[in-house]
Every structure is written in structure tokens, then in C-alpha cells.
Amino acid sequence: MVMTMLLTERALLEPTPEQVEWLWGMSRVATALYNLALEQRRGWWFRYHGSRPGIGYTQQNAQLVDLKEGFPEFNCLYSLVAQEVLRALQKDYRSFFARLKQQKTDGEEVSARLPWFKSSRYFFTLTYIQSGFSLKGGTLVLSGGLEEYTDQKGRTKKRSRRETIRIAGCRQLPEKVHSLTVTNRKGRFYANLTYEVEPEMPDGIRPLNGLAFDPGVKTFLTGADDAGRLIEFQSLIKRSAKYFDAEIDRVKSMRDRCNKGSRRFRRLKQVLHDLYRRRNAQVNDELHSIAKLVAEGDWDIVGVGNAEKQGMVSADPDKGRGNQRINRAVQNNWPLTKYRKIQAYKLEYKGKLYLAVDEHYSTQDCSHCGHRMKIDPSVRVYRCPKCEMELGRDENSAINLLNRVLTGMCRQKMDYRAYRVRISFHRSLSGRWTHREALTNPA
User: Fold this and answer.
1) pTM for the whole structure
2) Which of the 8 DSSP states describes residue 365?
3) Which of 391, 354, 386 is nearest to 372 (CA)?
4) What SS3 state is found at 51?
């Protein structure tokens, strides 16, 4: 049996003004269909109060043909896209009932709310499954609903509308696309292409190499492997976030002094959206680059500590502005959750294993003797009073996480004295990764 996995690649679209209006037209019709189906479900419930079986996706899907005959404006929506709109409503209802059941089981206060109506001001995601689209020479061909046209004999007929939209950039797109979604994010249209790939399989049988990372804010990743090497990733995420945070705060201050809805207010709002988009793009590029470098390394099992943001937030009122900077860096600008997801699927594609390692007490425990003591976050060196071990705070935590991974593999734990090499990875502004090796001198 051949194992496959799904990957998604996002492509930027460059539609013409007529195509933009066409896409927004389908979005408005999809929103109207969602709201109409939701109103039907709510009306059925308020009328019968559960005395009759509720209306589901199957019944509403069977009414699409009659709906298009009674309201011709729904004909501009591709049939499979209309079905996906009803499936989205069905998914929202299932999520509501699952949360409601969980709250009642746990004895919590019921706060789950029914799905609500959507606004046509926001773009409705258009989903194509297996058909209705094609990729040809750097362009995307999308199918719409039926449109009227006049043939050569003057007769009025209907045909399926097709639009060829240009894809920005020249790159190799996947061939066998499973599904496609068209989204609009801050004024830009994107095509999310989902396709199947076969994960790579390792050649032969050999001992598995392990690596564990301790995530942090100052140094994004500090790791230790079972070959006696300490690994550091000096990321540009902190530098990028610092620059964009200052620009975002400045633009927000200027926007808040304007009259809401004025021309200057709208212009500064657009500038603010562009700053957020640029910051997210740089962070995502950095995360993908780090995850790819780790996946292509000689490690077979990679563990990452599942740090909790709440435990890293500073609550000391004496720190003043320093407290705000720490909380902002952890809560808003620390993309650890996003990195985990990226790293997991890249390792799976390479036929390797990703592990989320429990990080409790990894910073407080001595990696040599196991002595536990609390240390202030400002202390960057761990000095054990029992065995006199002296090691970097993050490095000690990384060795503890690696030993937890090795324990699960029924292998001997690593001693801190076995680590003699430290490898630091740096990424230049051009995007190229370089590394520097240095010998360590543990106490």
C-alpha cells in the first residue's frame, strides 16, 4: 500500500478588473446561499423545536436545482462550489453541536452559539473539488455558472463561463491538483492548490539519529543531538518583528488622530495592512527555511518542546516597559505554533518523525544529576549546586528534552560532558544559510 500525504501551495493571482468583479460576484452569491440555507435551518428549528428531524446537507443539496430555477441569480455560481457552500454550513453546525455536547459533559456554562449570518463585505472562500479548474502555462482556468450569450443565428443560449486568470511569478506548479480554494486576503487573490505526494522512504536500516530543540525568544531554537553537537538557530524573526512593531505603532498613532472614515484614515489603514502583510511574509519565509534545513539534515527524529506562552509571560509590575516588551514578544510575535506545524509536515514528507516533547521542568532540572531548582528568567547560565555542573540555560533544557526522547526510544541518556561542538546557523539578508562551528568547554 502506497502512503500519500496532502500538501498545499499558495499562488498569487493577478486578475483583471473585470475578473475581480466576477470573483466578487460569485462571493456575494455564495454568501447569499449560505445565509439562505442558514435561515432555512433556523426557521425549521424554531417551528418544530426538534419534534421533526432537522434539515441537513442532503436535503438542502437536493433543493439547489429548484433554487436556481426560481432565482436565476444563483446560476452564476458553479454547481460544485454551491455544494461546498452547503458543506461549510454543515461543518459549522457539527462544530457547534460538538462544542455544546462537550460543555454539557464537563458541566461548564453553555457558551456555544449557533452559526451566524455572514456579511457580503468579506470574500467568501470559493472551493473547487477535483473539477471546475485547470492549470495551463502559468494561468488558472476557473469555471463559473451559466451565462447567457447570443449565437450567430441570434438565438439566446446558455453556457458555462470560464475565466483565465494569470498567476504571478514563474515557477513550477503541481500537476495533479486534488482541490483548489480561491481566497482574498487584504485585497489580494490567492489560489491554494492541494495535491498528493508520496513521502520519501529511508534507504536501508540504520540507527536512528535524534535531535531535540528548546524554543526561545532570544535564540529561536537551541538544540542537542545524540552525536554530541549543540545546534543553534539565530533567526531574523526577532529583528524583523522589532522593525515592523515600531512602524506599526507609528502608523497606528497617526491613524488614531484622524477622523474615522476620512481619506487619510483609509490611507493609513491600508498602510497598516501592508505592514502586517510584509511582516507575516518575512516570518513565514524564515520558518519554512528553518524547517526545510532541519528536515534535510541527518536527523531521523526531531523533538520540539511544547512551551506554553502563559508560563513565559512576565507579570512583574516593577519591569514597566520591559514587561510590555516581553509580553508582546511572546504573545504576538513568537510563531512557535506555526513553526511546529510546518516542521511536522516537512519531516513527514522526508520520511522522518516529529515529536512534541513535554517541556515541564526542563529548565529547572539539571541534565547531569537531576537536581531541581527554580532560576530567574534573567539567569542565562545553569549552575547546579549539587554536582557543580555549569551550562547554558537553553542548552541544559535542550539536553533534558533530548534525554526524554531517547528514553522513549529505550536508549541511554546523553551526558553534558559529551558535547564538544557547538554549531550556530545564521541566515544572511540574501537568504543563504551559513554555519559556524566552535568547540565548547563545559565545566
Assistant:
1) 0.78
2) B
3) 386
4) coil
